[in-house]
Amino acid sequence: MHPVFLPTIATFIYLWVLPQPLIFAQKSLVFFMVFGATCVVPLLTLYLLKLVGSIKTLQVETIKERKLPVLIMIVNYLFLAQVLQEIWQLRELTILIYATAIGLIVTSCLFYVKTKLSLHMLGMAGVLAFALLYGVSYQYANKTIALLILLLGILGTARLELKAHNVKEITLGFSFGLLTPIVLSFLL
């Protein structure tokens, strides 16, 4: 449930589990674009930043260490959303990617008031919002929603137990992750 893997997992489900009017080659191209922009690039960025000494650990625990990786992720997500919005069949996925970019922008703005939020919760809550928004259209079972809520609870508890975040940071991550896709779906 690491935030760097969540877009790839959500995209896989969106493309191959839900009925999409795309052929296999189109689905594969979209999947690898999302995987590259949201998983490969961030991981390579973190390793390079660690190599040059800009960050101490790959967990980027401090606000100072998080600034550059989050900025790079914002650019990645905005670029990816711009590319995907040209494909009308991917409207829902594009909204989720824009919502994540906005969540990262909010995260970046919070750095300037010395506040961080849980990116884990931001990502998982975004997946839950996606499932809630499009569950009716794609007839998600209530079990899927219940499973996502359970996973969010486990994730939030784990982040607290590991002392990676406090309750405020967990709540902020959850709130922005849940609300941003919902608001965007009505605006776009």
How would you characterize this protein structure?
- The chain has 188 residues and is mainly α.
- It has one domain (6-183).
- The chain contains seven helices and no strands.
- The two termini are 28 Å apart.
- The mean pLDDT is 89.
Structural topology:
Layout: H1 6-17, H2 24-51, H3 63-84, H4 91-111, H5 119-138, H6 142-161, H7 167-187
Number of domains: 1
Number of strands: 0
User: Which strand-content bin applies to the residues?
Assistant: under 5%
Largest sheet at a glance? none
Secondary-structure-based class equals: mainly alpha
The coarse overall form would be globular
Helix content: over 70%
Discrete helix count: 7
Low-confidence stretches: none
Ends distance: 28 Å
Report mean pLDDT, rounded to a whole number. Answer: 89
Order of helices and strands: HHHHHHH
How do you describe this structure in short?
The protein is mainly α and 188 residues long. 77% of the residues lie in helices and 0% in strands.
List keywords for this structure.
mainly alpha; 188 residues; 7 helices
